[in-house]
Amino acid sequence: xxxxxxxxxxxxxxxxxxxxxxxxxxxxxxxxxxxxxxxxxxxxxxxxxxxxxxxxxxxxxxxxxxxxxxxxxxxxxxxxxxxxxxxxxxxxxxxxxxxxxxxxxxxxxxxxxxxxxxxxxxxxxxxxxxxxxxxxxxxxxxxxxxxxxxxxxxxxxxxxxxxxxxxxxxxxxxxxxxxxxxxxxxxxxxxxxxxxxxxxxxxxxxxxxxxxxxxxxxxxxxxxxxxxxxxxxxxxxxxxxxxxxxxxxxxxxxxxxxxxxxxxxxxxxxxxxxxxxxxxxxxxxxxxxxxxxxxxxxxxxxxxxxxxxxxxxxxxxxxxxxxxxxxxxxxxxxxxxxxxxxxxxxxxxxxxxxxxxxxxxxxxxxxxxxxxxxxxxxxxxxxxxxxxxxxxxxxxxxxxxxxxxxxxxxxxxxxxxxxxxxxxxxxxxxxxxxxxxxxxxxx
Amino acid sequence: xxxxxxxxxxxxxxxxxxxxxxxxxxxxxxxxxxxxxxxxxxxxxxxxxxxxxxxxxxxxxxxxxxxxxxxxxxxxxxxxxxxxxxxxxxxxxxxxxxxxxxxxxxxxxxxxxxxxxxxxxxxxxxxxxxxxxxxxxxxxxxxxxxxxxxxxxxxxxxxxxxxxxxxxxxxxxxxxxxxxxxxxxxxxxxxxxxxxxxxxxxxxxxxxxxxxxxxxxxxxxxxxxxxxxxxxxxxxxxxxxxxxxxxxxxxxxxxxxxxxxxxxxxxxxxxxxxxxxxxxxxxxxxxxxxxxxxxxxxxxxxxxxxxxxxxxxxxxxxxxxxxxxxxxxxxxxxxxxxxxxxxxxxxxxxxxxxxxxxxxxxxxxxxxxxxxxxxxxxxxxxxxxxxxxxxxxxxxxxxxxxxxxxxxxxxxxxxxxxxxxxxxxxxxxxxxxxxxxxxxxxx
Lengths: 443, 443
Hints:
The structure is a homodimer.
Chain A: H1 24-37, E1 51-55, E2 58-61, E3 66-69, H2 82-92, H3 104-114, E4 123-127, H4 130-145, E5 149-153, H5 162-165, E6 181-184, H6 196-213, E7 218-224, H7 241-249, E8 253-257, E9 282-285, E10 296-300, H8 306-311, H9 322-337, H10 340-361, E11 365-371, E12 374-379, H11 390-402, E13 405-406, E14 408-410, E15 416-419, H12 427-442
Parallel strand pairs in A: 3-13, 5-6, 5-7, 7-8, 8-9
Antiparallel strand pairs in A: 1-2, 2-3, 4-10, 9-10, 11-12, 12-15, 14-15
Helix pairs in contact in A: 2-9, 3-9, 6-7, 10-12, 11-12
């Protein structure tokens, strides 16, 4: 069980219909899902969780059982944060319409958001989902560079539109990559020889060369700046810079996908790219932006949209509507006012130290990587850091679920514990998690 | 001025920066938009409207001036409908999470929604936008048929993702169509010779033949079932059936884009395709589904997703979350409980009769086409139904705006008044509109 999952479209931690220990009511619900939603939907866990309520870092199932949410990065400021709920409700009752009328809300939010970026990144466009933001980046990069080639990591995930699913190899072999897409090895210090930055850049250079060899002009390199689905790679800070140099010398753009790392999660900065001391050409935003309300966006240097903007208009009916802007504004204000980036740094450091301490006592807990409250911990066999153990990882994830803690698994070998709690996570929550994880490691 | 707009990306009724009669405060807002949002955003009208509040069929600008909303199909059950606002607020405060946990809300909504479809259409998948729904249909059609060719009308609009913008010629010459996309003439009874159904089907057959001649297997014909952006074509009922026969004989699917006509707007039925006595393979839903909340979906026959579902999973982080389901449920209940489909039929008939009456006194008012509360009225020169007059149409749209009525223009010649008010529109609202339209026609 140390191999990469080979089933086409295999997903770590997916429920296998017919298995698990579901109560009859939930069995009926699963059957109803199959009948109504069809075969492309997936549930988490051997025994799916039936949730009904959320508050802060806690989720509750239909029987009132509490789960510590150590997974959901969408509810970044905490489930059902009253200030965010109130902002959505208030604006929904006043005016919800779109961006073809003048409205102050979208501009006030745009200003507040852009204040968190380097001055060179001074435009923002609004969509409803991270997929749409990356799809827009794809269109803009093609228009600006005249190129069509895109470079992504080997287990990247960037979204579900046709163009972006074609740049998301983690969706599995059943979803074809785009003809003009090339993949590069993730910046995994255990598996790349030598300096990570140089090795990763060499991979990008090889991809550029291969594109050119096929007569394809490079358009962009796009990476999730903490490489979430590749298994979480954040160190050493700065390692991304050489690869960005490579794509720019080839005439392509660098797109930072901040859908997962963005909005303070990495602790040291609002955006993952800042860890690497560089300024991207475009930055896509999503998941935590509205704490669950569907709002996302694309931040960019004005010069990259000159070509697209001279030829095309962009209108997203719900994107940046008055309710989206009010909700996103409330989220950003909570991140600022409650010091959540600082909390991600402090509690993230505690969390990592706790995991490292556990690893001294448990061979199965292999390499631990993190940036703030985005953590990945490899589960390995026999203490060998290279012996990925997906089966043991699955058992741990499900043991935690059964004992009131929600996380999931990730990485190309499905053996990385994927830990990204709401940013309001406390030291007490960390202690609770570590206690349950130790029980799972023992079991 | 009787020509098709030739400027790349030209949009009917777009604000031209630097023109119009904006007060200084709004001028500053326009400049701020340009600076913050960049060059791809567009505003409506010679003088954009600065809106702050909505209620029922009325919108209010910052000075308290009221506008009768005869345009916005998103706020289909009326702006800020209290029952919908309450559903969003209530569920936002309880639980907002995604479809990888079990939750009743999405299934209850799916059942209630699917009850409005023919039994053959028994699966629904949820996205956040109509663009995403059409993009998913695109992916499923390719997986199911093994084909890559898509057929759309000459001025179609289906969305803004890369794949779907490539099937949306109304976005203008600056947005390239997909290599495997073919366009066919709209079912315009004035411009197609002979029987509309036969002529439209002949266009689809020619497109199929051209695809095959290029070695491209057809995947699907997709149409907006009231042909909104082509200029509104609804009659005679049943005319679509022969074209659907053509694509099916060629091995392709038929996708009904109900993002604009759906949810009762056409008056006689919940969905535009029902007017044509056929059952599509897939049906995309969007705009009015959440009355402004970003929720959309794709309804399908189970057999079309067998291939896609066996190879791929689909997860849309915000799509079908608990708040989306609760909000969409409230909208559907209001449509049912307030009899809005019936209202669309009754008030739509009145509306059309009023326009036809006006047309007897005003040569500029040319052919009028409608289905329920989706109406299109051509503005023509010298009483000639074929002499499209985009300039006069623009003057009427702006005159109405200045006098408290919001509509827009559409069609390949930008000369069709685009009229699609919230479905709570009343006979009194129609009288108000006709009075202002007559004043505009005189001016």
